Amino acid sequence: MNGVNKVILLGNLGADPDFRETDTTSVLTWNLACTETWLDARKQRQERTEWVRVVAFGRRAEGLSRVLRKGDRIFVEGSLRTTRHERNGETAYTTAVIASNVVLSGGARRPSDEEPRERVPDRTYHRDTQPPAAPPAAPDHTGTRAESEARVPAVPPTRRDLPDIPF
């Protein structure tokens, strides 16, 4: 049986993301502040913020680099990856979330804080996203009325038309 390596985060960017291009791909890296709140035993509100490093590659990195800015609230789906590297002659490890799905969820940043830039609110950048489908063909107004009515799609059932399923 295979294991599961899935991370789901909702948080705010702590700084503008870092975009760079390597010989083989584009890389976008950012730190996401994920804050959780709770009430302690004395009913006092407590808060803790976890800073999570997130990395996106390829076309996703290029697209996100044009829209993500400090303070943006985003939803991230991905997987954990730990890499090993040498730092000052010692072995060091870094754990990051490799983003497979990023949604700009709005909030956090005030309009006065924005600098002019390309912005597409609530746009999803997903690994499996397909290009938009071609627009539908223009309606065909030729033929008889019966032929025209036969081309009209059936009306979907209403709630009253559906069987009563007890669950």
Automatic annotation (TrEMBL):
Protein keywords: DNA-binding
Family annotation (InterPro entries): NA-bd_OB-fold, Primosome_PriB/ssb, ssDNA-bd
A Pfam cross-reference name: SSB
Basic and acidic residues: bias regions: 110-129, 158-167
Keyword match Nucleotide-binding: no
Disordered, as annotated region: 104-167
Gene Ontology molecular function: any one: DNA binding
Entry keyword Flavoprotein: no
CDD domains listed in its UniProt record: SSB_OBF
Record NCBIfam families: ssb
Subunit field text: Homotetramer.
Protein name according to UniProt: Single-stranded DNA-binding protein
Organism: Pendulispora albinea
